[in-house]
Amino acid sequence: MKKDIKKLLNSPQTDPNKILPMKYTWAREYYKKGVANNWVPEEVSMQFDVEMWKSPNALTKDEKRLILWNMGFFSTAESLTANNIVLLIYKHITNPECRQYLLRQAYEEAVHTDTFIYCCDTLGLDPGEVYNMYLDIPSIKKKDDFVVDITKSILDPTFTTEGTDNIRKFVNDLIGFYVIMEGIFFYAGFVMMLSMLRQHKMVGVGEQFQFILRDESVHLAFGSELINTIFKEEKGILTKDFAEKITENIKTAVDLEYEYAKDCLPKGILGLNADTIYEYLQYIADRRLERIGLEKVYGTKNPFPWMSEIIDLRKEKNFFETRVNEYKTGALSWD
Q1: Which is the catalytic residue, given 118, 131, 187, 260?
Q2: What does pTM read for this prediction?
Q3: Residue 260 domain-assigned?
Q4: Residue 144, domain extent
Q5: Is 134 noted as a catalytic residue in this protein?
Q6: What does residue 316 show for φ and ψ, rounded to 5 degrees?
């Protein structure tokens, strides 16, 4: 029997036009989860949010700040992630079933970007203010600059994944976007916005953040699987020095997100404060490290157990009722 030498990177046997038979069936499963999670922002009613946003006493100044800061970060971070998928990851991952998922993820990032356009239009926000926050708000700019900096080497148009050093650079990019951007930098914002939803404030925006979180949890799972598979196939990539570099980058990301949390929450509101969010960031950073085979560093407990319930359950909103329901769609069997 001929030995299977198919790999995610630099495989002479990979035909990007031939999706069957599949080797990486996990990529197909994540694709089907994405399809099952399908949503668009217009399905979420924003009438309650409009009334609350325009009412002079419904939201405090600090609550409006929290909303605007998260709108400002997510509105451009989603575009940054989408561009990375289309311009960088898709180019170098030539396996067809993984590419199919990447196309699905790129679509979901477009939906997320559209969500913030929808929110700005519906609430009457100044798009110039919201979409320039990644330049005007230092704590947001630092996060974006950090991700761009740790992934800048593969922006070279002549970059290839040939050779051990270049494969490490590519994995560093995957970790920058999947583990740090989507797995850490998004999560303080998720806690804040879903806390507002739990208080029945800005429920339309909160529900959209809930749907984005549901998508991002699948993105993170796919990205982690991608990274782990490359570690497995490319022997010698995960050296002690590279593991330490990854860990230090994740620790830096936690500190930058903590700085952002302090900026969003100069005072404690909604039962939240920046220090408690810092504990949560440490907790999820440990989970991210362990998920890609590295040792955790914080040992912090989860201060928001309700977040785990939101992340772990696959949910779909019944838009004729005001609750979230479990659901499942039919799917083809690919044995």
Answers
A1: 118
A2: 0.90
A3: yes
A4: 25-35+44-314
A5: no
A6: -140, 135
